[in-house]
Amino acid sequence: MRNINIDKEQQGILRFEFSNASEESITVDLDFFDEVLPQAIDFLAEDSSKAIIFEFKSPAIGTDYRVLFGEAMAWQVFVDRLNTVSKRISRLKAFRKPIVCIVHAECSSAAYSFASMASYILLSKNKGKLGFPETKFGLMPGFGGTINLLQRMGPEGALSILSSGKIYSAEEALKLGLANLLFEDEEEGLSLAMSWITAHKQLDLDNQLLIKETEAEYFVNLSSKINRAIPGQLAIVQVFQDSLNENLADAYELEAEAFCSVLQRKEPLAMLRTQYYGTAEASKMAAAAASFPMQKIGVIGAGMMGAGIAYEAAKAGFEVVLRDISLESAERGKAYSAKVLDKSISLGKATEKHKEIILGRIHATDNLADMRNAELIVEAVFEDIALKNQVIAESADLLNEAGVFASNTTSLPISKLAIASKNPANFIGLHFFSPVDRMPLVEVICGKQTSKETLNKALHFISKLKKIPIVVQDGPAFFTSRIFFNYLLEGISMIQEGIPLEQIEGAARLAGFGVGPLAVLDEITLDLMVKVYEQLPKLHASQQRTLSYLKKLIAEGRSGRRSGKGFYDYPADGGKKQYWQDPEIAVSKDIPSTEDLKKRLLNVVALDSYRCLDEGILSKAIDGDIGSVFGLGYPTQTGGVFGHIDQVGLARFIEECKGYAAAGEQWEIPPSLEKLAKDEYQFYNGFEANVGFRH
């Protein structure tokens, strides 16, 4: 619902007021443009007209993505309507009469595209926000938004905004040039608009875009600043280049064409399904869990993970007891919260009072008895089953009668750890990711005896932390760690096959992984990987070869960055790390192409994710997609592991995987996957999951 009031403020000035009486957001869609633009054009065509004011009094957003993709399916009708909008925008601006937009609240996506038509944007200092969040999901702004921003700030400034996907606060928007001036209240906003119109009766606008560089190298450099695997980002740079020396009317048409093309790509839909709808549904599920009176949280272990969990819990309003073996260690863990808060203060996102309140909720101690009567205890000690069992056994009795005990572990079996708690029904795994204050995912692991009530209490806690949960069943390394280990294993296998390190790591980055598998191994240390492998109940031959090779490197002093050398060499002076080639492994005479290496790294993770679904570790594909993207850093353009399989096509995916069979048992194809391929199965139908899969 939206309300459009049209008032003539004074002779020659027309004001459109957009509001929503229900206080919900106004949806700016094709119908909105079709309704408003013709009236604005007709008015400015009058000789007596002077200016137009558009005023968004309520929050304003774009069309729901599902609706947008649905509209785009009627391809020709959609294209024709977008072209009509483009022509109307260019005609409106061609009058060169002042257009001012006053924004009182958040104005994003298509709504900001509309607002950005204005020559002058006034933004509420208190509630105003501007941005294009759709670019986080592989899309690009349409309805003139891309070109308007290009004209407003030039290619580099516009690209920085358009590729970020951020919603900017009023102060940020002003600093970046997304708005021209901030106002305090409604009266001041209108007064400033009228003053600017008086001072700018006839605009002297250049009908050309703000692109002065003509060399092809300029756009090559520009495209190096984006993720080229993301269709929307690539399309934005292409529109910039194609608009070179074009007039505005042609530029708007180029944008409309690119916008339609991006909507036809598989990647944005997959990204939206996982990162927008999937995470929203997961958070909704957690919020719907039965409420549990939870005030006191115990965290055992004040290292990086424990300190991060303590901070997040205190920030959410819980009283936190942070315990370590010494008071000094516990205080050091609490100091982590102070450090995070100091950074937030420096960025203007927190205050000293806010810091004081949060730190006041964290009680650092070396006394285990201080945990008594906690509604939740999270142990976050070192990843050693004997140590964890000891901590669990000596602290589980301190829980509130209805309390929950959770282990923060990356791979140790929850069902085995639960035995030490004496009450396995109230024991659960909560796998946080580092750094906890920045990573949104929590993997919730149910042991064989974990009760439904315990799961709900854990979800209630996660909801209070505003984290995204995925629920998995117990098994060796659960889900995220298991597929992560497969990613690392494949990198080591490639090294053993004689594929140079730089080609493996380069292929990983080009595929969209944030960090190559071997750089990751050096960071976490080879010793930790060995310890994890040794705790797994069973290793196949390929894993055993990997374990033996890791032990060999450790024996040679190459255990990772901390030792100064691992798969890379790290100069003592802190200089750039160097590639290292194992002299005992000859470089292969038949090195695969980069494209083949990319497929191999993507597919090995996706294939094992399917095994997790087949074995019941995962209950639904979307949890695998959320976990792989937010936990592992699986390339976002795929939408996750199952999104990747769908994009490749199941039959082709299996064929590609069979081509790597010589590399090891990790490439064995489950019979159930072969059967699904014969049935031409897809995990998703558009935004919705297919229900045909049964594990």
What does this structure look like?
This protein has 695 residues and is of the alpha/beta class. It is 49% helix and 15% strand. It contains 27 helices and 23 strands. The strands form six sheets. The chain has an eight-stranded mixed β-sheet, sandwiched between helices. The chain has a six-stranded mixed β-sheet with strand order 1-2-4-6-8-11, sandwiched between helices. β16, α16 (414-419) and β17 form a beta-alpha-beta unit. α9 runs antiparallel to α10, α18 runs antiparallel to α23 (594-615) and α20 (517-524) crosses α21. The longest helix has 22 residues, at 266-287. The two termini are 44 Å apart. The relative contact order is 0.07. The mean pLDDT is 93.
Question: What labels would you give this structure?
Answer:
globular, single chain, 695 residues, eight-stranded mixed β-sheet, 27 helices, alpha/beta, six-stranded mixed β-sheet
Question: Strand fraction band?
Answer: 5-15%
- The average pLDDT is 93
Helix amount: 40-55%
Strand order of the largest sheet: 14-13-12-15-16-17-18-19
The N- and C-terminal alpha carbons lie at a distance of 44 Å
Structural category is alpha/beta
Cα-based radius of gyration, to the nearest Å:
28 Å
Poorly predicted regions are none
Number of strands: 23
Number of helices, counting only DSSP H or I runs of 4 residues or more: 27
**Main sheet, how many strands, which sense, barrel?**
8 strands, mixed
List the helices and strands and how they pair.
Elements: E1 3-10, E2 13-19, E3 26-28, H1 30-44, E4 51-56, E5 60-62, H2 65-73, H3 75-94, E6 99-103, E7 106-108, H4 110-115, E8 120-124, E9 129-131, H5 145-162, E10 167-169, H6 170-176, E11 181-183, H7 186-199, H8 216-223, H9 231-242, H10 248-263, H11 266-287, E12 296-300, H12 304-315, E13 319-323, H13 327-346, H14 352-360, E14 362-365, E15 374-379, H15 385-395, E16 399-407, H16 414-419, E17 427-432, E18 441-446, H17 452-465, E19 468-473, H18 480-496, H19 501-511, H20 517-524, H21 526-535, H22 541-555, E20 568-569, E21 578-579, H23 594-615, H24 621-632, H25 641-648, H26 650-658, H27 671-678, E22 684-685, E23 688-689
Parallel strand pairs: 2-4, 3-5, 4-6, 6-8, 7-9, 8-11, 12-13, 12-15, 13-14, 15-16, 16-17, 18-19
Antiparallel strand pairs: 1-2, 9-10, 17-18, 20-21, 22-23
